């Protein structure tokens, strides 16, 4: 059933009625009350904010008449029996009413109107649902069509500021604010600014010298062209976009498991920027690359956008919780899409209509229906031809492997059948109880030993496995009247055995020493079959006790794996071993172990030889199969058809189904764009493609506005709208709205390509101004929002790290492929990221190629405000903390690079020329020579403390990490 929502027009009409009452012009008391024009506006104004399906204060919703009747607030035709009138009536004593809790109470005229409405039967149209008004409506500035503005032409505008349309817009605003622009920056400032801005790296001394000596009128333009053509451009600007789309390479939440095959999306983004791919094409590929580029991995990889955010993969078996987790997963896609492309916080409409922007809850769930077929995970991306070629290589190998496995299985079945006939004979040998996790005890004749070795021959959970078992305590007792546990660490015992997990500071977790600490509880998890205990001195022993769960607290825990078959050996020298006990005379722990023992006892040497030969050939086939390259399986998500019906979730709760919805465009832009509406059974890919096409439609003003603002933001440090992913009521207003629209139109006219817009911005006088501070201008515009100078900024964490590697000569410019790690990754059920303490050459790539796991602390990068990509980061924070200084001064990475920088200086200019070393350092780090005072201070520092100390001081300077 179609539902009609209360319109703005009717609110305005109703408000006019309220004003009419306030003026004393009350209507006739016997006239018919018009609910839609007279009562509904009062409910919307005074009540609906606290009483709606997403915020039911007092468990009462006033979106329809149903709850008023059910809760006995209303008796149609009987005002005296209607509790509603009691709670809104103003007390003659206090002058207050019980409701509304906040705001002014209803006037006498308004109260009288409610009373008359109830007396007349309390008619409320069945299809009319009331909704809270948002702060902004469809007339909000960002929702209006793009305007074709002409750049201002002012008579007193300097000629040089008239040549670029951007400058004309900026100069006009400066004049309005009684501000004047700053002079042009020096060539040294310009090349450093432009090089960092486009590539995120410092210019080399040779590039600076060449630019400063180039007297051609277009020298600066040539510089911009060279930088835009550099592959470093895509690496730097691709990082900006990865921030916006919350790209991360672990799934987050409590498990936070690494994702090793998401990196192709990072490479795709970098290549797209380097290729100057039209942005509208990127939008189509991000949302529907699997539809428009099916079979083309270079296009399909774009859909990683949908699934590169955090998601909860715990796998809750409770259907209610599972539905909530699924709703949270799709919410991440909706929020990111709305904020990245439209600059609208669409996610705020999950539980109710947006309180600030004209985004309805129905809009949110139309997007929910659109993304309902997207699921996180990997998928093989290959053409049919590639798949067929690989299948033809694999088929004969798999056929031969299956043949061998069949023969092996048949022979083994024969052996098992023979063994079953002798079952009673074999079972006579099993005289002891089976192994128990709570404790195993073996006694034997006293024997002298300095070493005891426990060897696994099968686990209780898998007869074929020999590693992964747990030991919480291992005891070796002496053969004397007062027996001693000589395995104890405090008695001098030591334990050796491969841990399942080794991790620097975390080496105590599951460590082999837990087996002899005298404490029951924490376990060693075996990384190899053997556990070896060495005593302080040779001892005469006769008993061994070991367990994995001595207390019995974890008996039901399947993961508390223990031995099922084993042997115990002793040695006096650790080389020659003698078996003293085993599990051969114990009963098997389960049917699988019983079957294994029968087989081992019954198989003949000839049969074992034949099986070994088959196993050898099977392993060889396995190697040949492994040598055939696998088809790429990338983290691009899985897509499957999910048909309706789709509903609004009342209050955001998947268990409370509300109004029916279908995949459709948002009503927010209904006045300026041509919308779409699809059937709930439409192909899932077509839903996303329709959304993508609507986002980049020529009539949609938000996508180009938001994109133009992002470009401005990354060039000047702050956007024309300073909240780049929020163009709504809670965002900021544009400082230069006409310029923003002019840039957005240029983007569309330029085919959505970005490089030309970069060049246009950077060739402007606005961009080329010096950053010199002027107190009189700052008193008017302290944040430099109107650009009376170029706003200086600190380098980002990635820029600082890349700069240190670059100036020290260690930066590896290898592009693409799997990323490097600045942490050691550990995983059991959950993941742990242990920061590295030593850094090898494999970590000297650009920071954009770091495998960017969520909640992983990365020292320098984290300290300098690289965001945790659990959320999108459309703008970076820039904090100042003690940790930043400590990291640059004392971290092993910066200490290494100080030494590398010193080595480079000596290579570049020799070991005997201190002044040349100083000059080279200043040109490498600051793109300028030292002044005399700096030269003198540097000489003194080097003479007193050495070249390494000088390089360390240079790395810790503000001039290195700030851009003017």
TrEMBL record:
Q: Which Pfam families match?
A: F5_F8_type_C (PF00754), PSCyt1 (PF07635), PSCyt2 (PF07583), PSD1 (PF07587)
Location of the F5/8 type C domain: 507-596
Domain of life of the source: Bacteria
Q: Any idea which UniProt keywords this protein has?
A: Signal
Which stretches make up the DUF1553 domain? 687-941
Keyword Ligase assigned to the entry: answer is no
> InterPro entries in the record, alphabetically?
Cyt_c_Planctomycete-type, DUF1549, DUF1553, FA58C, Galactose-bd-like_sf
Give the range the annotation lists for the signal sequence.
Answer: 1-22
UniProt domain DUF1549: residue ranges:
166-373
Which residues are in the Cytochrome C Planctomycete-type domain? 47-103
- According to UniProt, the name of this protein is F5/8 type C domain protein
The organism of origin for this protein: Gimesia aquarii
